[in-house]
Design brief:
By secondary structure, the protein is of the alpha/beta class. It has helices at about 15-20, 40-50, 55-70, 175-190, 215-220, 285-295, 320-330, and strands at about 25, 75-80, 90-100, 145, 155, 165-170, 195-200, 225-230, 245-250, 260-270. The strands form three sheets. A six-stranded mixed sheet has the order 1-9-10-8-6-7. A hairpin with a 7-residue loop joins strand 2 and strand 3 (about 90-100).
Length: about 350
């Protein structure tokens, strides 16, 4: 393919992510057993102009992550939570398993024959405002973090300057899934400021490693975040006591910064056999947990938070640490060239 055949941004340049065949990085879903910054397009361009070289330690970390992505293996990721505000270091000890898709073997963006037109529905500024929450010391964590050109460490998140589209596969789903989705998505919108749009239903029966671009089904855009019920015979990652899995699919927007563009949530059908807790269907806390993963929130080793990897009958909704982490995820980088 000649350079004339490659998609271009509005400025006329060919984004690096296109030249590199959209060198994609997908976070495979982990199983469930003064904190603001300007993310507008103009502010982002200003940060890019004064971008400083990455430190040697950052380069080493990036290289290590790249090896993990290519290998597609399960790793134990140690990180730390902030001891002050988000502007401080994001670091306190906890462990979680992170399985990364192998983008070289058909699971990722690098293998796609078609890439969507960049900037679909992207606006010049965030569409909403995250909840102004103060951190009270409760545990929270992110699936991945990255460094902005000004040195600020931020979570890898969805662009707040465009809607996050969601599609439901109702096969094997409970009758109240649509109503429960409205409730949970409203909770997430209120705390993140993201605009979450339910496109309706789909017949897509996905597996881990689903293609983030399906023009024949969803048109010339990134595939929506998929939510469906399944079992271990179709999704082996649900084997055993795993109640659900979920996560985003992220790509390099062209300047080294990552942004989530698609994702999926799978809830094990065995959750439908369990009794409600305090009148709440047993699958709903799992749905909350996995949707938070899909937006970029990670596990914490704190049983009082919903993002603890082990379900608790006493924790059915987002807690203080979960909510604070979600509010940070509403402050992601805009992505006009993706």
């Amino acid at each position: 393919m000649s350079s004339d055949d490659l998609p271009r941004s509005k400025s006329g340049r060919i984004p690096q992510w296109v030249v590199d065949e959209a060198r994609g990085r997908e976070s495979a879903p982990p199983p469930w057993r003064g904190d603001t910054w300007d993310t507008s397009v103009e502010a982002d361009r200003a940060r890019t102009r004064r971008r400083r070289p990455a430190s040697p330690s950052t380069s080493v970390l990036t290289a290590v992550l790249s090896v993990l992505v290519i290998a597609g293996s399960a790793v134990v990721w140690w990180s730390r939570l902030p001891d002050q505000s988000w502007d401080g270091a994001v670091d306190a000890l906890f462990s979680r398993d992170v399985l990364r898709y192998d983008t070289a073997s058909g699971g990722g963006v690098a293998s796609l024959a078609h890439l969507p037109e960049p900037g679909f529905e992207e606006e010049d500024a965030p569409l909403g405002t995250p909840a102004p929450l103060a951190w009270d010391g409760s545990a929270y964590a992110f699936e991945r973090t990255q460094e902005l050109p000004d040195g600020t460490q931020v979570p890898v998140a969805w662009s707040p300057c465009r809607p996050v589209h969601v599609s439901l596969n109702l096969n094997e789903a409970p009758a109240d899934l649509v109503d429960q989705m409205r409730v949970v998505l409203s909770e997430l919108e209120a705390v993140t400021g993201l605009v979450l749009v339910v496109d309706g239903t789909t017949d897509e029966d996905a597996r881990v490693g689903r293609s983030p671009v399906q023009p024949e089904r969803y048109g010339d855009r990134w595939a929506p975040l998929l939510v469906q019920f399944s079992d271990e015979s179709r999704v082996p990652e649900l084997e055993g006591d795993v109640a659900g899995i979920g996560g985003p699919q992220v790509v390099d927007r062209g300047d080294g910064l990552l942004v989530a563009v698609s994702g999926a949530v799978w809830i094990d059908t065995t959750m439908l056999e369990r009794d409600p807790v305090d009148g709440v269907p047993a699958y709903v806390p799992v749905l909350r947990h996995e949707l938070a993963h899909a937006l970029g929130l990670g596990h914490v080793q704190d049983a009082s938070q919903l993002m603890n990897p082990k379900a608790s009958p006493d924790v059915l909704t987002y807690q203080a640490g979960d909510r604070y982490g979600l509010s940070m995820l509403g402050r992601g980088v805009c992505a006009p060239d993706v």
